[in-house]
Amino acid sequence: MFDLAEAAVEGALAAGATYADARLMIVRYESMSAKNRAVEDLTQTETAGIGVRALIGSSWGFQSTPELSAAAARDAGARAAAVARASARVAGPPLELAPAPVVVDSWQSTWEEHPLDDVGLGERADLLVAATGAMAGAGVPLAQASHQIWDTEKWFVSSEGSRIDQHLVECGAVIDATAIGDGETQRRSYPGVRGQYGTRGWELVRELDLLEHAPRIADEAQALLTAPQCPSGTTTLILGSEQMALQIHESIGHAIELDRILGWEAAFAGTSWLDPAQLGSLRYGSDLMNVTADATLPGALGSFGYDDEGVPAQCVDIVKDGIWVGVLSGRDSAPLIGRPAGGTVRADGPARLPMVRMTNVGLLPGDSSLEEMIAATDDGIYMETNRSWSIDDRRLNFQFGCEIAWEVKGGKLGRMLRNPTYTGIGPQFWASMDMVGGPDEWRFWGTANCGKGQPMQVGHTGHPSVPARFANVRVGVR
Amino acid sequence: MAWDPSTDPAAQAGLERCEAVLARVGNRAQALVTFERGHSALTRFANSRIHQNVASDEEHVRLRVAVGEGQVAQATTTRTDPESLDRLVEQALAAAALRPTDPDFPGLAEPGELADVDHWDDATATADPDARASVVGDFVAAGDGLEAAGYCATEGAVHVLATTTGIRYASRRATAQLDGIHRAPTAAGVPSDGYGQATSVRLGDLDGTAVGGVAAAKARAGVEPIELEPGIYEVVLEPKAVASLLLFPAWLGFNAKAHEEGTSFVHLGEQQLDEQIDLWDDATDPRALGRPYDAEGTPKRRLDLVRAGVTVGLCHDRRTARRAGVEPTGSSIGNEAFGGYPTDLFLGAGDRARDDLVAGVERGLLVTDLWYNRILDPKTQVVTGLTRNGLFLIEDGEITRPVQNLRYTQSVVAALGPGQVLGVGDDAVLVSNEGGVVHCPSLHLRSFAFTGNARG
Prior knowledge:
The structure holds 2 protein chains of 2 kinds.
Chain A: H1 2-14, E1 19-35, E2 38-56, E3 59-65, H2 70-86, E4 104-108, H3 121-137, E5 142-158, E6 163-180, E7 185-190, E8 196-198, H4 203-208, H5 210-224, E9 233-239, H6 241-253, H7 258-261, E10 291-294, E11 315-320, E12 323-324, E13 345-346, E14 355-356, E15 361-363, H8 370-375, E16 379-391, E17 397-409, E18 412-417, E19 421-425, H9 426-431, E20 433-436, E21 443-452, E22 457-465, E23 468-475
Parallel strand pairs in A: 4-6, 9-16
Antiparallel strand pairs in A: 1-2, 1-5, 2-3, 5-6, 6-7, 6-8, 9-23, 10-11, 10-15, 11-12, 13-14, 16-17, 17-18, 17-19, 19-23, 20-23, 21-22
Chain B: H1 9-25, E1 30-46, E2 49-67, E3 71-77, H2 82-97, H3 122-125, H4 129-142, E4 147-163, E5 168-184, E6 192-200, H5 208-221, E7 231-237, H6 239-252, H7 256-261, E8 279-281, E9 303-307, E10 310-311, H8 318-324, E11 344-347, H9 354-359, E12 363-377, E13 382-395, E14 398-402, E15 407-411, H10 412-415, E16 421-424, E17 429-433, E18 436-440, E19 443-452
Parallel strand pairs in B: 7-12, 11-18
Antiparallel strand pairs in B: 1-2, 1-4, 2-3, 4-5, 5-6, 7-19, 8-9, 8-11, 9-10, 12-13, 13-14, 13-15, 15-19, 16-19, 17-18
């Protein structure tokens, strides 16, 4: 396979590229969903192709082909250079690439049970069907379960001499129960609204113990229909770790993407409220806020050996004691703020141009616990499991809905509340964080559906998180 | 001249691949196989320069098999060599064999008559990067020094669908899109963004100067915006904002599967929306971009969803149609777990110019675009999101001041409800959106709930 990737790079260089790299990828994917005791959809996909990046002047040219032949690869390289050359009609200053080590290596993620090769299709289906049965048996009209599996092999070659092959196995699952009332629906999900995913094997799904949790979430969905509405007002808010993961994703992860900060995503995904001139001095949150982007965490969904520019995975400090200190970057963006390449650039397949992506952007644990937060709260609300998410194009103004909440009175959990929402402005919200869960509650959540770029790409990101408490948050937005 | 698939090399290659797959399946299963080969390219610009310029040749084969009593599975591959097609077929058959029997399996579609649809343009399908760069250059130049960002994309693909029931359909479609913003500097440091877009089957229709001019004018008009208190405002929504809202009823309301499961807002035959609202799905309209058949091979026809505010239709695939005892509507997107979707949605235009709609507002807001829209509950259709790329205060029928972006939390159905639509624009255009394309005009609505501003 390296030969084909090399042919693509040679084609680009021969056509005038000053730098080129190519990825040959073969991806096996399976998604299965079950509803009310029956498998409803089973899709298996195999995607193969070569994507070539050629740099000429101020722009990347990119060309992909699904044909795995030397001739097609060479032609794709030449066409990538032609695409880059056309960019000169609307040119900017020449791009300079941050240095990257020349690497010849092979890397593989770890798994105990390969989800596609070691676990039978029937067993995978039986689990989902049984989980929906357990929820339907508890009385909800809509009981759903699904899993997704990716097996990705890629061979990377650069014109600087790197040759890297990687093999990643990722998977995860989710169950959800929906109760339907006269005027609204209520849903409960486990382990999170979009499931839990990791760069691991089927053991991850087994550890979720879907059957154990199925009746509980079905009961909660039913109970939510008659629970009181989350009150409107300003209060102390405690968030569970799954909701914290999405809070981190939306109001930290995207905001620290250097391509957004530089305006490269301005028209679609948006920009960022962060100004590189304030890197190292801007207060992002309270002293308890410590955030890293760590692509080396074993088993987390944003982990890999090398990014799609051949840069080794690394752990980068993002927020230290509340101060903004780091960004997510690539070889073309990092030099613009005087930083080394961040090793975060990835594409979702051979037909897409790699771009800056979150790795495992997560909150480091503190010294509290969910139990202590509740006990220390006289009047507040505890929310759990994301239901909706929305944030502005500068990643400041957010509004989240959760599936379920409980009032907190006198240090104890009280009534269940339905339709909980909260809203805020990023730095004010993070500045109000006054309790952070400890190492025992630190969990690596995985988000398998992060959309970014044009054409749209779906990225896999990880978010280590813990429960946390925030003061003076506006809740019950109506 | 009408397109003749028998003389089109891509269509013939597709037909050969489909026949090869069906031959491999033999009499072991009912089967539906699709082939698509195309070329897509996107020239992206930011900071007024082209920074990402991509192109891809794409080809894939999708096989759906049904064995026994409705035991269904599907598999897809981008690899079309004989060994890969062998693997595709055996994989799908093995997966289907593990599925339980399904008494609701509707069987495969039989051959039908297709509408004369050919949303195609050779120049678009074969556009080179210089052609796209030229359009981008015009968009950027129209800003006369403003910073520009966006993309110009072209796409062309041939599609073949064949079944063991005898269907042999071929179609092709091309799409060209220009979508971008201009950014005007402000004293506060946060640029004022203005938006423009054009979508067509023909790249030649995309006037970079005109679209860029619209975006630049909006950006300049948005400088030094005022902060407005959240609250209920009368609004004029421009087509991009309208298309953003329509995504939710299209996705979770008119979906017959959601209706069957009880999560849809739709009550057929009831006056749920304002009498000025007509909604329909129609891939056969010359202004649309869709294929003449759906993912199951059901021919597409115009499907009325709302007539004069009365919900009258649902988007059925073959399975939901069978359960409901109606004919499928050609709305399958190839995912039974999801259900049916109106891929070529139209909202009927009115006869009032957008400026006329604005003139009818005593105090309200002109909304260019809605962003990061997320639904809170499918049944109530309450959605939250933010304004973007141009928000303006209207006072006494005049646009008076730019306004800082606001967050809204609003039921789409309630916003379009009886008595809520005060005017419908004559400016309907094709708008590219997260869920595909929507052809819609500006709307003047009586009431829209804004729930947050820059202070939260």
